[in-house]
Write the structure tokens for this entry.
Amino acid sequence: MTTAQEQTTQIFTIDPIHTSVGFTVRHLMIAKVRGHFTSVAGTIEIPAGTDVPQAIEVTIDGSSIDTREPQRDEHLRSPDFLDVATYPMLTLRSTAISGSPSAFKIHGDLTIHGTTRPVVLDATFEGRATDPWGNLRAGYEATTTISRKDFGLTWNQVLEAGSVAVGDEVRIEISVEAIAPK
């Protein structure tokens, strides 16, 4: 038996081909390194009559990290950073979502390197469209900035001038396209 809420809520599935999870972090404190994860999955629950989700769950395969430099990517997969052998997945689960489609907040629990911390993402609804195969799609974007040290990612190297090789703040940018069930 289905409840009234289940009848009025659609669960969209994240389309990994049309979704990007990217990050930016300072390198040598003078430039920015950008990267992304190529393997992402999850769901977005959207109540009828609104485009603001009521729940979001995202899982990212940590081994799919890509910064366009294979040696750096291997270091990021190592125990110095993500330790994907021990903690293969990064996850985000919403705990509360509020606002309007043009600007809403996603409060959630982000887990990286086996450590879960609360985060707040600034998000927007980007629109809905039906693709050429008849699938209803919805688009969202979200951003936040985290301290990598808060998640146990403390590796660094002090440079001669006293600065460090890797900044602490990591900017996360997410662009999602999700598909409704037929």
Remarks:
- The chain is about 5% helix and 55% strand.
- The first strand starts at residue 9 and ends at 14.
- The radius of gyration is 18 Å.
- The domain at 10-179 is CATH 2.40.128.110 (Lipocalin).
